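I have been asked to look over a protein record a colleague put together. Alongside the sequence sits a line of tokens, each denoting a local backbone shape. I have pasted the whole thing underneath without changing anything:
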Amino acid sequence: MNTNRIGIEKTKARKLAEQLNILLANYSIFYQNTRGYHWNIKGEKFFELHLKFEELYNDLLLKIDEVAERILTLGHTPEHSYSQYANLSTIKESEKVSDGLIAVEQILDAFKTIILLQREILTLSAEADDEGTNALMSDYIRMQEKLVWMYSAFLN
């Protein structure tokens, strides 16, 4: 069998790296959107949302680094240009958003996109017997599902 240095079949590792690069692009656009929400938020819930958006973008920044390092661990190169991110990402750049409710709705939409993509990666990582990627995606999904519940509760 033709495997990489961590024992994963090279063709499966390449496919995983491709999907992880798509995830990386989505995380990067989501991160920048969330920074914009943090900077531009106005209104009644300013103090609450300003802090929550900062917590979120700090978490997204950590995930961006972890996903990039996982791509490297699989023996591939993470994308790093915003032009590539814009091409690969399903999440689109948001315009200047100052309304907290609109920002939270866009965050929930982004989480849905990311969670669905991570579930696809889980399937690929299971087929590749890649426990490292599998554990990473499982941890992310578990945490993000809780955030979806919390942001949804805020809207209701």
Q: What stands out?
A: The first helix runs from residue 10 to 40. The radius of gyration is 16 Å.
